[in-house]
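Hey team,

Filing this mostly as a record. A colleague (T.K.) asked me to run one chain through the structure pipeline before their review meeting, and I want the input and output archived in the tracker in case anyone asks later how it was produced. No errors, nothing strange. Just documentation.

Input sequence:
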Amino acid sequence: MIAKLTALPFYAKLSLTLVGLIALGFLIIAGKDVLDPLMFGFLFAILLLPVSNFFERKCRLPRSAGAFLSILLFVFLVGGIMYLVATQISRLADDWPMLKKQIDQSTADAQGWIQSTFHMNMDKQMDYIHSTTSKLMSSGTSVIGHTFLSVSGMLLFFAFIIIFTFLIMFYRKLLFQFVLKAFGDEHEDTVHDIAENVQSILRQYILGLLLEMVIVAGIACTVFWIVGIRYAALLGIITGLFNIIPYVGIFTALALSTLITFATGALTKALIVAISVIAIHAVDANVLLPIIVGSKVRLNALITFLGILLGEMLWGLSGMFLSIPTIAIMKIIFDRIESLKPWGYLLGGDYEYKKSAEKKMKTE
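Output structure:
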């Protein structure tokens, strides 16, 4: 059977490959509700595995108790970050009258600019605003319903992630033995090598990403506090959190920080915040990212950006976050299978070329 497949002409092999990719893409999209939390559970299980091993070996706890305690510590950490963000947002809500006044003033200035530039009087502008507002109010019930469903779905999503994380940590030996049996004894060393590298690289990548987030948030908070921006802590945390999403996150943080600053202060401070966020991103991309995260996952920028776009198309925001770890796993597998090594080189690119060139120069 294998000989017949290898004897097929190129266009037949290409057609089979395309059909396989289309079928795989369909299964990924159709199984999003299960695969999405499963992937997050897999990543968190790898991240928390050393903590669970500590409880099992040092504290002599059973595997279930070690996994449960490690997940509980992680939930408390995430809950603390969410509580910090919520307290900052509550301060923003307390100043709503001032924000409303600032927005009204900015709206009046914008209306005056529109009237002088496009010769559209105030009455036409107000009629348009009132008609738009009435349409929004008429659909208010459906908006509230969608919001409630979104919040409920998000809580259920987080619950699935916790359950998958616990089960993967609890049955980790069973799952690994299944992989060994599936690939046979002749590939046991390769499977062990891939599993060890996947754990090491993904754990270092996630920890590096979290460290980078903390550093960026700290720098942003300090800069905003020195400049005298209101809600400097909130804006700094927003900048750090959205910085986790490569390429796209910085634009979201820039828009949110600029809008909040504009609503609570002058236009000049909003411009200062925008310039500060861009400068922080430049330092992060050129200094922090290569040192903290870049050494963990060697992927070229083209593949990374394509992966983020495909991840967003398939799974939305979570797909954007999961794209880089998924490509990193693929690269580890490709680099250790002879027939797939060219694909591993494509994902890494110049990194492997420079590394091999340096080794060649040392040997010479």
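Quick notes for T.K.: Residues 297-364 form one domain. The two ends are 45 Å apart (CA to CA).
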